[in-house]
């Protein structure tokens, strides 16, 4: 059983010295347990936080343990009456080829689901995050302008498409012209601005000619700097993530803008609310799943995956995702179904 073990905590981007691919002997499931074979592993930005022991909303992975992560698996061996060999489950078995589970927390996906990996993206945690953050905290109204960065990733792409369904004007922010083209042509955004362009701030200002009513915050950094002056009175900011900081080893360059930010929030009466999806909204998963399945069935929401097919390249794929070298939801195909 090949497993990625957290051997040491990274400073900056994780390296092969921090996450080491090791082989262990596979145990057999006992009564009441199942042996799961990992087919898909989700790679998500939050994992960088789990590698670190800095204070967070969740405990870090212990040094010496398998790196955590959501997976879609098939039951390989079953000693549990409710689970049949071959059936698919959503699990949380981490960066490894096989795992034994007592079935707690498994979600059944059926015997031959059409798109099993969607449970890691559009129909799973990232889709749910987009849905709740936008609708419950962002409260978008028809005609308003919604801005979202990381616009072609699983959260951002979903935020923008739901906002379009709610009748908003949607301006995406993404890294590079190919991603921006995709956001406009395939996802239906009204505009998408390349945050690496020299005149990014100016282009964003032109695209948001009525100001910004909802800024769905995924990234922080220079994107947030460009957004702040464009916020309208009573704007809402669902504070979902700050991916530009996850690999940071030092504070951002000065001057300190905190008091300016607080002044802006006060004068414009801006609502900023952080949220952690399963801590805050687990009771509303059913509502999301129903709406999203319907939108997918009706062709109203599009979804793009970035599939890594070499398990030995998992760490590179993870770092690439944090750097914006992914194009769509990053998923590793660990083994063939
Ligand atoms: P993505 O697959 O979109 O990957 C992250 C993207 O961030 C990159 O592809 C890149 O896109 C962009 N990015 C990276 N660095 C920068 C930078 N310096 N400036 C601007 N953009 C940058 O990720 P997800 O959709 O999975 O996650 C999006 C956000 O949602 C993350 O912050 C994540 O932590 C957060 N999240 C929060 C949850 C919660 O419960 N609060 C739950 C799930 C996710 P590009 O090339 O377009 O710049």
From TrEMBL:
InterPro entries annotated for this entry?
A: ADH-like_C, ADH_N_2, ER, GroES-like_sf, MDR_fam, NAD(P)-bd_dom_sf
Oxidoreductase is among the record's keywords: yes
SMART domains recorded = PKS_ER (SM00829)
**Taxonomy of the source species:** Bacteria, Pseudomonadati, Pseudomonadota, Gammaproteobacteria, Alteromonadales
Q: What is this protein called?
A: NADP-dependent oxidoreductase
Q: What's in the keyword line of the UniProt record? A: Oxidoreductase
Source species: Pseudoalteromonas lipolytica
Q: Where is the Enoyl reductase (ER) domain?
A: 14-332
Pfam families attached to this UniProt entry = ADH_N_2 (PF16884), ADH_zinc_N (PF00107)
Q: Which domain of life is it from?
A: Bacteria
Keyword Oxidoreductase carried by entry:
yes
Cited CDD domains: PGDH
């Amino acid at each position: 059983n090949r497993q990625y073990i957290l051997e040491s905590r990274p400073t900056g981007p994780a390296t092969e010295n921090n996450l080491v691919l090791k082989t262990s002997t596979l145990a057999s499931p006992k009564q009441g347990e199942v042996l799961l074979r990992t087919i898909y592993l989700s790679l998500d930005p939050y994992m960088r936080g789990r590698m670190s022991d800095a204070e967070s909303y969740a405990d870090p992975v212990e040094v010496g343990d398998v790196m955590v992560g959501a997976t879609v698996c098939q039951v390989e061996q079953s000693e549990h009456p409710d689970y049949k060999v071959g059936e698919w489950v959503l699990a949380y078995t981490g960066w490894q080829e096989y795992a034994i589970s007592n079935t707690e927390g498994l979600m059944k996906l059926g015997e031959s689901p059409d798109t099993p990996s969607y449970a890691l993206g559009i129909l799973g945690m990232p889709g749910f995050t987009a849905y709740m953050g936008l609708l419950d905290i962002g409260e978008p109204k028809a005609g308003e302008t919604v801005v979202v960065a990381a616009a072609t990733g699983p959260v951002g792409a979903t935020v923008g498409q739901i906002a379009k369904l709610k009748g908003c004007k949607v301006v995406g922010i993404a890294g590079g012209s190919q991603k921006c083209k995709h956001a406009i042509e395939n996802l239906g955004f009204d505009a998408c601005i390349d945050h690496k362009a020299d005149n990014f701030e100016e282009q964003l200002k032109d695209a948001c000619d009525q100001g910004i009513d909802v800024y769905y915050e995924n990234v922080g950094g220079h994107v947030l700097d460009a957004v702040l002056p464009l916020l309208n009175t009573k704007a809402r900011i669902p504070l979902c993530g700050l991916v530009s900081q996850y690999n940071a080893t030092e504070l951002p360059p000065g001057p300190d803008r905190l008091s300016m930010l607080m002044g802006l929030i006060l004068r414009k009466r801006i609502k900023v609310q952080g949220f952690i999806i399963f801590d805050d909204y687990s009771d509303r998963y059913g509502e999301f799943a129903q709406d999203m399945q319907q939108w997918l069935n009706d062709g109203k929401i599009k979804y793009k995956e970035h599939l890594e097919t070499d398990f030995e390249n998992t760490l590179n794929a993870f770092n690439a995702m944090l750097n914006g070298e992914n194009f769509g939801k990053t998923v590793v195909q660990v083994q063939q179904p």
